[in-house]
Amino acid sequence: MDKVMEEIKKRMDSAAVEAPKAEAPKVECKNPGITEFVGTAIGDTIGLVIANVDPILHSYMKLDPKYRSIGILGARTGAGPHIMAADEAVKATNTEIVAIELARDTKGGAGHGCLIIFGAEEVSDARRAVEVALKELDRTFGDVYANDAGHLELQYTARASLAIQKAFNAPVGKAFGLIVGAPAAIGVLMADTAIKTANVDIVGYASPAGGTSYSNEVILMVTGDSGAVRQSVIAARELGKKLLEAMAGPAPSVTKSYI
């Protein structure tokens, strides 16, 4: 999580002399002159596209034969923000989420990295899905908070789509909330607070030895009425920030909160 932490430390250092800026940190995108390159984004994220996957590799990747093109979204830091961004991408394009994998990464931090594959019959659809997801990341990183002790991640949507269903087995079309606390001890209390705050249904619960890639996180997924889900996520966020900041000082948002 080095890159994210650098951005946070810069914000903390400047806070003493000026008000924090709401602008998202700029991610320099250097086009390497490769046709398959789409772009980069926050969280050490890269977006790529393959117009025609090699037939042998296609079979090993277990792709549906109708998808000759794929879009690729990968990151060292973040998983929830990318899944939420991918969910918006499939809503806006004629693509399907083929795979979502969570790597034990975060550049040595407490959480995950990710690999997300979009399947498409046309390469233009695959490219567009990756473009939409990359653009969404500044928003979906808005409720990621971090300091030297760990991180919190909160996500909310009023209408879950196929990426969220693929990743978390959540019902399509209903409100969805994601609550992540690291270290895991904070996540347990955040989960308990979220459930006690509002009338929501648990979609899933993950801990270091169950449901994660042995990351030091507890993850709660909830669904239900949109107002209740949002209230549940906000309550967990406020509690989690107090606990994380008690451990290691200020834990500001990397970009700007959207929940």
Automatic annotation (TrEMBL):
Task: Report the SUPFAM superfamilies cross-referenced here.
Answer: CcmK-like
Q: Where in the cell is it found?
A: Bacterial microcompartment
Which Pfam family would be a valid example here? BMC
Name the major location: other
What does the UniProt keyword field contain? Bacterial microcompartment
Query: Is Transmembrane found in the keyword set?
Result: no
Keyword Methyltransferase appears in the UniProt entry: no
Q: Which InterPro entries match?
A: BMC_CP, BMC_dom, CcmK-like_sf, EutL_PduB, PduB
Per UniProt, residues of the BMC circularly permuted domain are 36-149, 155-250
Which top-rank group of organisms is this from? Bacteria
SMART domains found in the cross-reference section: BMC (SM00877)
Name of the protein described by the UniProt record: Propanediol utilization microcompartment protein PduB
Highest classification ranks of the organism: Bacteria, Bacillati, Bacillota, Clostridia, Eubacteriales
Gene that encodes the chain: pduB
